[in-house]
């Protein structure tokens, strides 16, 4: 069901927005035609109903005409300084205690998931559609039974003569039904006029007026348009504008039929009197009213009578040219609108690919396939899709290895890492706690123990934080992983009374574990330098800061795409236009910077290539603590409209300022 919601929800949301635009446009056109005939305005509402029915199908079948979202298109920055901001909160939810060994884990992780509101919205929408369509089908069946029981009217020859006079070339049946029923018309291929048996007691003029009105509906094709508009209302029943449009459709249809009767020579006062009497004495059975075109509805009677008696009304019937123009206008509006899609909207193709990947992985019991796909989506910050893949991978791990296995604990850790990226610390700590509860302290749960330690640190439970950190060091793999844990332990010891000597020992030990010129080594040097400054050992701190900055610059250069070589680059001015940012991804904060409460500005120089990508990133000013690399990671996914020289795209130099702030 969740796969279905992922596929159908974008279509429904798109149709909702576009239908509102169509109905709004119809209102504007109808208002502009307020001085024209009712038939002209009814044509507008008919075209709107047809457009509403076509929108969902055309949105799927037409090639996409993509426009960027409001946040993605930015004005050209003539100074060529593009800016981005990474933010993080410093306050954290109090971390939950680790679950006891043997506690069921999979159910606990699933419990934190919110209710899928998309599925409920789809169910409610579908229920409304089915109810409305069922009403219409019930009405059609009731009319079919009524037609089967009806007998031919003795006045059918007179009605056929009137039909010919109105220009109706095909056969029209005239049938008698039970007394007291409202005269009405129904039938697509072979229309029929239903008259109550007590119509025989009416005057000849009244019967003729009623016949003319019903024949007007036949000539105008109102049965077909009625069913089409009713179906459109069924699809968009939740939209108040659709109900208002439906009422306007019915009102203008009846007035257009009245105009046709009056144009045939009927006297307005006489016709109004007959209409009032029929509406007063006759009733339409409710099931039949949902599909048939009845002569009078009490709710609209007063307005109709005023329109009939208004001698200054425009009563012209649109010709074929007007119908063609209305159809052309509807197509001109609905085709580009149906093809239009937001560049940032979830892609149906990707939703289908995620669903297909999950099905294939379940069939093969291959969780590695899902983990690889999830990692790629996490880099693109498509976290909802990644969550589905990670949860499906956890289910396969449970089926294959059980809930007390290392594989299962790794799956829980993956979910915890994803929750951290999504800014959901409570979910992350729940997953990490359950991973530790599943298999205890192992190399595979060192990351989980580290995060639990950070959670305790943020709530000033330093002894608890140190306990988790020591457990992580005991199982961490030698090298960068052990160095990272020791650096963190040094930060905890700084907060504990009398811990400065131990902190320095931990920092120097971490440097011996960290690989040379690695991000871990740079982080340790930055944190160690801060500690030395707090001890008023500024000279030693400056040496470490310089070494860390050198490492960070080398890491940024290694992460950047470099294709320029000795090729020429341009600056804005003297015939060179400025590039424009069209796709922007804000950088993420690192856990280390958040824990150390680091904020600042990263300044980078780049070259914007003719293909719209950023290359040759050079770090002009760094912040450290992994934020420089996060800035580069985000900028590598930016896209630009390239600068030009003499109308030809050329590589242009620019500067990017990335501000990291703690909220």
Please tell me about this protein's structure.
The structure is a single chain. This protein is an alpha+beta fold. The chain is 60% helix and 11% strand. It is built from 25 helices and 15 strands. The strands form five sheets. A five-stranded mixed sheet has the order 3-4-6-5-7, sandwiched between helices. Strands 2-15-10-11 form a four-stranded mixed sheet, covered by helices on one side. It has a two-stranded parallel sheet with strand order 1-8. A hairpin with a 5-residue loop joins strand 5 and strand 6. Helix 1 packs antiparallel against helix 2.
Strand numbers in spatial order across the main sheet: 3-4-6-5-7
Low-confidence stretches: 1-7, 66-79, 91-113, 342-346
Q: How much helix is in the residues?
A: 55-70%
What would you call the structural class?
Answer: alpha+beta
State which percent range the strand residues make up: 5-15%
Radius of gyration: 37 Å
Shape designation: elongated
Distance between the termini: 38 Å
- How many helices does DSSP assign? 25
Task: Write a brief caption for the model.
Helix content is 60%, strand content 11%. With 663 residues, it is of the alpha+beta class. A 5-stranded mixed sheet has the order 3-4-6-5-7, sandwiched between helices. It has a 4-stranded mixed sheet with strand order 2-15-10-11, with helices on one face.
Main features:
single chain; 663 residues; alpha+beta; 5-stranded mixed β-sheet; 4-stranded mixed β-sheet; 60% helix; disordered N terminus
């Amino acid at each position: 069901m969740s796969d279905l919601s992922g596929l159908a929800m974008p279509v429904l949301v798109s149709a909702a927005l576009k239908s509102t635009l169509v109905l709004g446009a119809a209102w504007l056109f109808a208002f502009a035609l307020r001085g024209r005939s009712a038939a002209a305005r009814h044509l507008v509402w008919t075209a709107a109903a047809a457009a509403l029915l076509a929108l969902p199908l055309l949105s799927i079948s037409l090639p996409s005409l993509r426009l960027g979202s409001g946040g993605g298109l930015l004005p050209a920055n003539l100074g060529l300084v593009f800016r981005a901001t990474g933010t993080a909160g410093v306050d954290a939810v109090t971390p939950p205690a680790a679950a006891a060994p043997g506690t069921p884990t999979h159910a606990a992780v699933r419990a934190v998931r919110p209710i899928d509101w998309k599925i409920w919205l789809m169910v409610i929408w579908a229920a409304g559609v089915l109810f409305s369509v069922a009403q219409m089908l019930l009405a059609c069946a009731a009319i079919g039974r009524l037609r089967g029981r009806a007998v031919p009217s003795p006045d059918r020859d007179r009605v056929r003569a009137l039909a010919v006079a109105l220009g109706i070339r095909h056969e029209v049946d005239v049938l008698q039904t039970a007394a007291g029923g409202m005269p009405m018309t129904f039938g697509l291929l072979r229309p029929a006029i239903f008259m109550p048996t007590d119509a025989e007691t009416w005057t000849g003029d009244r019967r003729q007026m009623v016949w003319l009105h019903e024949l007007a509906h036949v000539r105008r094709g109102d049965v077909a348009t009625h069913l089409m508009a009713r179906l459109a209302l069924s699809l968009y029943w939740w939209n108040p504008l659709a109900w208002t449009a439906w009422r306007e459709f019915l009102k203008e249809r009846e007035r257009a039929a009245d105009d046709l009767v009056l144009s045939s020579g009927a006297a307005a006062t006489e016709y109004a009197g007959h209409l009032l009497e029929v509406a007063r004495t006759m009733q339409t059975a409710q099931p039949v009213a949902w599909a048939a075109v009845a002569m009078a509805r009490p709710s609209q009677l007063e307005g109709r009578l005023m329109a009939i008696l208004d001698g200054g009304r425009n009563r012209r019937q649109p010709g074929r040219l007007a119908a063609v123009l209305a159809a052309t206008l509807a197509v001109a509006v609905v085709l580009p609108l149906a093809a239009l899609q937001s560049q940032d909207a979830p892609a149906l193709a990707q939703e289908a690919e995620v669903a297909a990947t999950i099905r294939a992985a379940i069939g093969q019991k291959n969780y590695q396939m899902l983990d690889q796909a999830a990692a790629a989506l996490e880099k693109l910050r498509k976290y909802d899709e990644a969550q589905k893949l990670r949860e499906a991978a956890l289910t396969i791990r449970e089926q294959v290895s059980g809930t007390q296995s290392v594989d299962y604990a790794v799956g829980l850790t993956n979910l915890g890492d994803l929750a951290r990226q999504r800014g959901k610390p409570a979910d992350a700590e729940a997953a990490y706690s359950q991973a530790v509860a599943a298999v205890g302290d192992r190399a595979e749960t060192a990351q989980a123990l580290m995060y639990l330690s950070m959670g305790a640190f943020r709530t000033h439970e330093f002894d608890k934080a140190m306990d988790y950190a020591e457990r992580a060091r005991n199982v961490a793999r030698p090298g960068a992983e052990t160095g990272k844990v020791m650096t963190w332990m040094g930060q905890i010891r700084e907060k504990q009374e009398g811990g400065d000597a131990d902190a320095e020992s931990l920092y120097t030990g971490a440097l011996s574990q960290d690989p040379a010129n690695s991000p871990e080594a740079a982080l340790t040097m930055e944190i160690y330098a801060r500690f030395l400054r707090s001890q008023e050992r500024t000279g030693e701190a400056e040496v470490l800061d310089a070494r860390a900055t050198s490492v960070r610059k080398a890491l940024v250069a290694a992460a950047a795409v470099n294709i320029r070589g000795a090729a020429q680059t341009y600056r804005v001015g003297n015939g060179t236009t400025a590039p424009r940012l069209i796709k922007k991804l804000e950088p993420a904060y690192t856990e280390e910077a958040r824990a150390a409460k680091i904020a600042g500005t990263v300044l980078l120089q780049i070259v914007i290539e003719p293909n719209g990508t950023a290359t040759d990133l050079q770090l002009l000013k760094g912040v450290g603590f992994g934020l420089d690399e996060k800035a580069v990671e985000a900028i590598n996914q930016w896209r630009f409209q390239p600068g030009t020289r003499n109308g030809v795209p050329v590589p242009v130099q620019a500067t990017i300022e990335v501000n990291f702030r703690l909220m």
